[in-house]
Amino acid sequence: MKWKQIPLGLLQTNCYIVYNENNSCLIVDPGDNPKKLSTVIEQLELKPEAIVLTHAHFDHIGAVDRIRDKYGIKVYIHEKEKDWLSDPALNGSKHFMLNEPIKVRAADHLINDEGVMSIGSFKFEVFETPGHSPGSISIYFSDAEFVLAGDALFNGGIGRTDLPGGNHNQLIRSIDEKLMSLPEQTEVLPGHGPTTPLV
């Protein structure tokens, strides 16, 4: 299993392409710049199987509809943020200096629990890691020893909790109980900035 980090958009939000030996891939958090993202996918000769969202803030979802339509793939998000995709007040785009608020069509599949999940040829574990937002999830590939942590945990910091639905104490619990319980060799792939070792 391999991954590629692609910073996209005004906030340089990390989109990740996770791909396997069959050249199938998952797209995690396509926040903006669909042309740039699809160029990378085509350069690597990958076949997208789905979009998975760690959460629904505007800088993580801006290119969802254009990418899902280009490749004819499904979108997955935690059920607690299903309404955020189409609501600029919830996804935050209403409050930032954007040309127009972000509105995305409904997800095709809702994640409503933790545990092992399969999408196409991919198998991974989902952890609910709220605090930055109510429906934040982390996606753990145990065999490849990496976790996509969204905006929960960064290199040298943690996610902000002053946005709608944010909760500092809840975020600390998520990090301590979920992320810090992973094997110490796990590499953390955050929503912004460089990757970081877990310890």
Cα radius of gyration in angstroms: 15 Å
Number of helical stretches of at least 4 residues: 5
Please name the CATH architecture.
4-Layer Sandwich
Low-confidence stretches: none
CATH topology: Metallo-beta-lactamase, Chain A
Q: How is the biggest beta sheet arranged?
A: 6 strands, mixed
Overall SS class: alpha/beta
**Pattern of helices and strands:** EEEHEHHEHEEEEEEEHEE
N- to C-terminal separation?
22 Å
Q: Approximately how much helix is present in the residues?
A: 10-25%
Shape: globular
Strand content: 25-35%
Q: Please indicate the count of domains.
A: 1
CATH 4th-level superfamily = Ribonuclease Z/Hydroxyacylglutathione hydrolase-like
Number of strands: 14
| CATH class category label | Alpha Beta
Average pLDDT across residues? 96
Strand order of the largest sheet: 1-2-3-4-5-6
